[in-house]
Amino acid sequence: MNIALIGYGKMGRTIEALGSLQGHSFPLIIDENNRSLISEGKLAGTELAIEFTTPSAAPQNIMDCIEAGVPVVSGTTGWDERIPEIEAYCKKKKGSLFYASNFSIGVNILFALNRKLAGIMDHFPEYAVSMSEVHHVHKLDAPSGTALTLARQILEANRNVHSWFLKKNENPEEAKNGTLPIDAIREGEVRGKHTIQYESDLDSITLSHNAKTRDAFAAGALLAASFIKDKKGVFGMQDLLKL
Looking at 139, 193, 229, 232, which residue is catalytic? Predict the structure, then answer.
């Protein structure tokens, strides 16, 4: 495929390197210095766009791709409040959008396990749930988009938990009163580690995923690109992986 890369940070470069090995080409690369190319018709000739930028830029980038009739795969996180608006825009324009808070196949298996475990733990209120996520120091949003997805799943499936909060603002009693503390740690060049723990006075249960390389996210984004290129509508990893 001829793919436009929107965002040329570490993820963009990883997608370019892995995609080139898979036989894809990247005739258009857009970063903060030439973003105007999106609205100047330069997307013509590309079959699809992959977007990894910033929370403030992502919604407009996605809308510009849809307006140009180019399917777009986006992995930018931190703009959750605008997702319903952008999905509605995509459907109105009969465009194609694939959005995921995390493209790692392993993380999406974690999502499936987390959803199942949260439903089981609904029957065991004596277990207090907590979460931690660790990422590199360059990550802008906290908690991570992956952590927020995990938290939403827990709140939907476990009636003993009614809200989440950042652990740095923790009241020691809050976790015992039906809230989910999330510890968001930024250190070094950590690719991403997410851990969910249920703890009682007698034992503990832990789910965890640790990303070893950005290739896991790039591979998922390229898989999503192949999946969406001939489709119309809004899609996510559940549509792709059928977990």
Answer: 139
